[in-house]
Structures are given as structure tokens and as C-alpha cells.
């Protein structure tokens, strides 16, 4: 259908058009859209041919409520002159465009805006001050700008503000914003989110402070109304004090990944409350020695339990990737009956840890990456009934035989591993194995395919690597990661690449 037909058929009925990412949309297209007088929402994000001259066709559209020009890099200050003629606009997205302070200041004419996205624009305090007349704003996104504490002080003029993103700016202190629900200060140095007024408490629901430097954690936490606070992302922060966390009884999402949280801080995490559904401790200092693992005696045997976390009965997702956990701490994790997503990655995990998770009845996604899992360990694993994804990336001891066999026995489970690409579907629907050029293989005996298969019904392939200790295999793994090292090292015959 050509453009003329589009106009005749839809110009009196279409209320929303989404051309996001369409590289064909240009000035000619917008000229046709300019006649769509009932159009309420127009999304042109990532349309690289749209420039200031193309926007001219939208001038004066009386019904347009939302315009998205995000990442249209050819939109400049000249284009804003056309946009401000659209008095009906309530939502305007201009992130990562070519605007300067001059263009931003023109936006002050759009008094009806309740959402303004200027992320990635190098605007200054001067431009932000010009926008304080936009008293209807509820959502303001100015990440990556040159705003400082001086400019941020005028944010108190936005009395309806509920969402604020000042990540990657020079802002360290915010004035009291009594209606704030969502705040993003990632990659900022944070002193205060309430202007130092200890009498003010912010009813935050979501706080993202990824890679931020929080000078006074207690001050920040004490600023927040705990009863409404449900989402906290402090990934990549240098944290030494998590005492304030134990007051956050309504938290449902807590991300402490890539932080410096250690075993000593785990008690505060455990005291958060039973509403917690998502917990990430990926790449932290948590170890098997954390106090949440307690040794108890049952039937004359010593086993580990998780008394500190027993009250987290709604925990659905737990990420402990790159935490150096060992086999004995995994069985208690199967006791989380609501757990659906578990992510583990440790060189110290092996067959017993995987087998212990068979009883995690509600698991949907299990990551068991980088472990020393053997072929027999995989084939003897009884997956939980609900399991959809088993990620074994980095389990380098496994061979194509074990992976292919597991997939044949459990076709409904998506198995992830580097060797999956080596498996090719055959014409009869089974899997055939290609020779890998990337990983060392174990030599195996191959039986004559023309022989009677019944003679070998009880025979299976044996991975010769199982006779090596875990420490020896890890030592060999380290050696194989450098070709320069391999020139001078003779691997055992069983670990040499098959030619």
C-alpha cells in the first residue's frame, strides 16, 4: 500500500502510530502523517532520517499527546521550534538527540507536559532552571547531563514529580521531593536524597543506585519510608554498612551484585523480611562460610541448614554466580519452595550439588555454570518437574555424548552449553556430533556401527577425565587457556584434542 492510500484509509481513524527503528521514515513520510488530525501518539524513536525539517509537518497537530523522538540524532534546536507549536503534548521523548541548552529552554512553552525525557543531552543548570515553569511534570529524565547540585535545587518546583533519573550527572544532593516514587542516581556520588532535612521522608517505591558511591548509607536509608519501599538496586556499589537494610521489611527486589558485600553483612540481608522475591549476590564476597549456613546434626550426621533465610518463603529468584560456594551448602537451597530461578557459578561445585537440587520442585531456570560436573553426574541428574532451562555454560568436563544423551532423555528442557553448537540434527531427528575445534576432548571407545546393537545395550561411554582430582582438572583448565603455555606442556593422553 502506497503512502497516498495510507492517508486516505487511516487519516480520520488512526490514533497511534509506532515507526520506531524504521530507517525508511523520512520527511516525505511525516508529510503524510501531518494530515492525521486524530493522531494521539507518534513514536519515531531511532528513525535516523528524521531531522528538524521533517518535524515541520507535525506543527500544530491539535490531538497529539505523545511524541517520541528518542535517539533521532538529527533532531536539533531548529526542530524544537516546530514541536513547541503542538500545544496538546503531554509526553515528549528527546533523549540522545542533538539538542543544546537553547533548544531545551524552548520546551518551557509546553506547559501541559507531564513527562519529559532529555536523557543523554548535555544540558546545564541554566537550561534546567528554565523548565521550572512546567509545574505539571511527573516524570523527568535528565541522565548524562551536566546538571549539578545547584541546578538540582530547582527540582522542588516540580511538586508532582514521581519519577526522576539523574544518573551519570554531577548531582550529589537532592532537595526534598515529597511525592517521589522512582529515583535513579546510578553512577553518582550520593550524600543525601532529602536535602539534609531529617524531618522529611521520601515515599520511594524504587531506588536504583547502580555503581553509585553512597557516602552515608544510613542517611540515605533513613530518608525512605520503609513501608512502601519495594525495589533496591545497589549493584556495583562499594558497600561497607548494610545495617539500614533490616528496616526495609517491604523489599521485594534487592540487587547487591558486584558490590563488596561480605559474609559479615549477610545477617542484615536475612532480616529484610518475607516479602523478598528477588535477591542477587552475584560476584560479591559471599562464601560458604557465611553465617546463614549453620551446621546442625540430624540422624548422627552433620548437615548445613539456612536458618537465617527460612522466613524468605516467597523468594523466587536467587543469584549467587561467582560466589565461591562448595557442594555442601547447596542442599539447603532446595528448601525454598517458591524458588523458580537459581543462578550458581563456582569452580567448587560438582555432581552432588546438582543432584541435591532435584528436590527444588518449583525450579524453572537453573544455572549451574563453571562447575566441575561430570558426564555421569549430568546423566544421573533427575530434573525438577517444572524445569525449563538448565544452563551448564562453562562446565568444561562435559562431552557431546553426555549433552546429547541428556537432551534426548529430557527434550522439554532447554540445555545451554558451549558444545550445543557442535550438535547437528540428523535426518531421522536425533543428534549427531561434529568434531570440536575449540575444546579438549576425552578419548572414548567407538563401537562398530554395523555390529549388532543389542550386544552393547549395557555399554556406555566412559569419560577418562573422572580419574583426575578436581584440583588437577582445574590446573589443566588454567593451562589450556593460554596457547603460549601449551607449547611447553604435555597434557595427559585422555585430555589431548582428538584429531
Helix-residue proportion: 10-25%
Rg calc: 29 Å
Shape: globular
Summarize model confidence as the mean pLDDT: 83
SS elements, strand count:
23
| Distance, first to last CA | 57 Å
- Biggest beta sheet summary: 17 strands, parallel
Count of alpha and pi helical runs: 14
Q: What do these coordinates show?
A:
It holds the Pfam family LRR_6. The chain has helices at 3-10, 27-33, 52-55, 77-83, 101-106, 125-130, 149-152, 217-222, 266-270, 351-356, 375-379, 400-409, 470-480, 483-486; strands spanning 16-18, 41-43, 66-68, 91-93, 115-117, 139-141, 163-165, 182-184, 189-190, 206-208, 213-214, 231-233, 253-255, 278-280, 294-298, 301-305, 317-321, 341-345, 365-369, 389-391, 414-416, 423-425, 431-433. With 499 residues, the protein is of the alpha/beta class. The chain has a 17-stranded parallel sheet, with no helix packed on it. A hairpin with a 2-residue loop joins strand 15 and strand 16 (301-305). The longest helix has 11 residues, at 470-480. The two termini are 57 Å apart. Mean pLDDT is 83; it is low at 426-464 and 479-499.
Question: What is the compact description of this entry?
Answer:
With 499 residues, the chain is α/β, with parallel strands linked by helices. Helix content is 18%, strand content 15%. The chain has a 17-stranded parallel beta sheet, with no helix packed on it. A two-stranded parallel ribbon has the order 9-11.
Amino acid at each position: 500500500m502506497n503512502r497516498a492510500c495510507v492517508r486516505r484509509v487511516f487519516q480520520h481513524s488512526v490514533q497511534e502510530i509506532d515507526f520506531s527503528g524504521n530507517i525508511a521514515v523520512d520527511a516525505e513520510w511525516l508529510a503524510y502523517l501531518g494530515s492525521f488530525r486524530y493522531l494521539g501518539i507518534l513514536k519515531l524513536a531511532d528513525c535516523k532520517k528524521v531531522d528538524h525539517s521533517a518535524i515541520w509537518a507535525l506543527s500544530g497537530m491539535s490531538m497529539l499527546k505523545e511524541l517520541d523522538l528518542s535517539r533521532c540524532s538529527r533532531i536539533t534546536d531548529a526542530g524544537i521550534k516546530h514541536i513547541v507549536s503542538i500545544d496538546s503534548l503531554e509526553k515528549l521523548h528527546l533523549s540522545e538527540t542533538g539538542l543544546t541548552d537553547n533548544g531545551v529552554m524552548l520546551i518551557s512553552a509546553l506547559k501541559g507536559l507531564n513527562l519529559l525525557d532529555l536523557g543523554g543531552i548535555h544540558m546545564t543548570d541554566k537550561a534546567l532552571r528554565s523548565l521550572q515553569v512546567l509545574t505539571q511534570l511527573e516524570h523527568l529524565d535528565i541522565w548524562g547531563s551536566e546538571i549539578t547540585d545547584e541546578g538540582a535545587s530547582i527540582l522542588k518546583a516540580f511538586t508532582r514529580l514521581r519519577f526522576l533519573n539523574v544518573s551519570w550527572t554531577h548531582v550529589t544532593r537532592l532537595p526534598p521531593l515529597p511525592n517521589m516514587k522512582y529515583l535513579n542516581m546510578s553512577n553518582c556520588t550520593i550524600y543525601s536524597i532529602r536535602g539534609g532535612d531529617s524531618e522529611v521522608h521520601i515515599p520511594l517505591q524504587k531506588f536504583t543506585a547502580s555503581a553509585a558511591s553512597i557516602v552515608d548509607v544510613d542517611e540515605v536509608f533513613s530518608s525512605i519510608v520503609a513501608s512502601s519501599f519495594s525495589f533496591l538496586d545497589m549493584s556495583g556499589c562499594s558497600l561497607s554498612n548494610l545495617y539500614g537494610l533490616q528496616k526495609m521489611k517491604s523489599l521485594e527486589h534487592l540487587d547487591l551484585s558486584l558490590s563488596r558485600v561480605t559474609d559479615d553483612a549477610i545477617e542484615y540481608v536475612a532480616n529484610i523480611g518475607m516479602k523478598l522475591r528477588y535477591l542477587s549476590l552475584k560476584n560479591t564476597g559471599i562464601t560458604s562460610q557465611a553465617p546463614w549456613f549453620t551446621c546442625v546434626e540430624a540422624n548422627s550426621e552433620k548437615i548445613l541448614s539456612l536458618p537465617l533465610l527460612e522466613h524468605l518463603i516467597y523468594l523466587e529468584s536467587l543469584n549467587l554466580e561467582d560466589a565461591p560456594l562448595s557442594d555442601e551448602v547447596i542442599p539447603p537451597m532446595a528448601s525454598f519452595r517458591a524458588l523458580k530461578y537459581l543462578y550458581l557459578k563456582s569452580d567448587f561445585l560438582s555432581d552432588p550439588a546438582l543432584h541435591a537440587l532435584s528436590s527444588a520442585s518449583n525450579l524453572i531456570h537453573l544455572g549451574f555454570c563453571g562447575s566441575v560436573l561430570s558426564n555421569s553426574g549430568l546423566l544421573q541428574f533427575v530434573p525438577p518437574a517444572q524445569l525449563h532451562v538448565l544452563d551448564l555454560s562453562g562446565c568444561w568436563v562435559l562431552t557431546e555424548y553426555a549433552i546429547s544423551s541428556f537432551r534426548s532423555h529430557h527434550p522439554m528442557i532447554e540445555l545451554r552449553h558451549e558444545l550445543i553448537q557442535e550438535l547437528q540434527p540428523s535426518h531421522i531427528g536425533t543428534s549427531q556430533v561434529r568434531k570440536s575445534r575449540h575444546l579438549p576432548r576425552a578419548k572414548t571407545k567407538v563401537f562398530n556401527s554395523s555390529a549388532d546393537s543389542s550386544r552393547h545395550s549395557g555399554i556406555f561411554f566412559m569419560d577418562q577425565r573422572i580419574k583426575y582430582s578436581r584440583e588437577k582438572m582445574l590446573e589443566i583448565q588454567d593451562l589450556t587457556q593460554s596457547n603460549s603455555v601449551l607449547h611447553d606442556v604435555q597434557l595427559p593422553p585422555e585430555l589431548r584434542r582428538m584429531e
